[in-house]
Amino acid sequence: MTSFMLLQAGGAAGGLTMMFPLLIFIVFFVFFIYIPQNRQKKQQQTFLDNLKEGMDVFTQSGIIGKITKIDDKTVRLMVDDKTFLRVLKTTVSGEYK
């Protein structure tokens, strides 16, 4: 009977050691993937909210242009003399300097 009790106690400790790698993975995921991704998302949203006419910007596809008009969901870019493109506001990646 004593050996049966020892086997049961060993099984419980084994379960905790099996969960340790899972806990390490969850902590890794939160600190190295989830938090930086949320920070980047907030920075991009702040940038999109602060777009102004006359800014030189580039899109995700590499188009460079000057903002001439901003609507709710779209932005009109002047890419050359008398050449305008209308792109989604969410595709504007950053300011071109």
Q: Averaging pLDDT over every residue, what do you get? A: 88
Strand-and-helix sequence, N→C?
HEEEEE
* Low-confidence blocks of residues: none
Number of strands: 5
Radius of gyration: 27 Å
Strand order of the largest sheet: 4-3-2-1-5
Oligomer: single chain
What is the share of helical residues? 40-55%
Give keywords.
97 residues; 2 domains; five-stranded antiparallel β-sheet; 1 helix; rod-shaped
Could you characterize what this model shows?
With 97 residues, this protein is α+β, with helices and mostly antiparallel strands. The chain has 2 domains: 1-50; 52-97, SH3 type barrels, CATH 2.30.30. Helices cover 49% and strands 29% of the residues. The protein has 1 helix and 5 strands. Strands 4-3-2-1-5 form a 5-stranded antiparallel β-sheet, with helices on one face. The termini are far apart. The mean pLDDT is 88.
Summarize the structure.
The protein has two domains: 1-50; 52-97, Roll (SH3 type barrels), CATH 2.30.30.100. 49% of the residues lie in helices and 29% in strands. It is built from one helix and five strands; from the N terminus they run αβββββ.
